[in-house]
Amino acid sequence: MSKRDELIQKYAADLKDKCGVTPDMDFLTKVTIGCGPSIYNKDSSTVSATDPNEIATVKNNFLIKKLGLKDGPELDTAIDAVIEQYGKSERNKFRAVVYYLLAKHFKKEGIYNK
Q1: Which of 22, 56, 82, 112 could form an SS bridge with 101, CB 3.0 to 4.6 Å?
Q2: What is the pTM of this model?
Q3: What is the pLDDT of residue 38?
Q4: What total number of domains does the chain contain?
């Protein structure tokens, strides 16, 4: 099993066990690939929910640039909801899992079919 496949399995387990979501494995794979090499770096593979700069990065680079959403309070509300779903006390929130949940929230799965 490749390193990426191992990570996808880890992300799927987090979605199931910590978020209460049955993962769509094809979509999870696409989101993981979309994260690029950041998934292999300990720091960039996770999202620090307590760091305002990190939340701004998720909002600007993923929600606005990648998903093509307009900036507004609903983006912050969605990020908060995903962080809550993952578990605020959960220290390591994987970027791919957060992105997966946000893409599902906004029904933007089609972005990954291009």
Answers
A1: 82
A2: 0.96
A3: 94
A4: 1
CA–centroid distance for 104 within its chain: 10
CA angle 38/70/16 to nearest 5° reads 45
Model pLDDT, residue 91:
83
Host H or E run for residue 21: none
Q: How far apart are CA 112 and CA 72, in angstroms?
A: 23
Q: How many residues does the chain have?
A: 114
Residues of the chain with pLDDT under 70: 114
Question: CATH number of the domain that 107 lies in?
Answer: 1.10.238.120
**Which residue range is the domain that position 63 belongs to?**
3-113
Is residue 67 within 8 Å of residue 78, measured between CB atoms? no
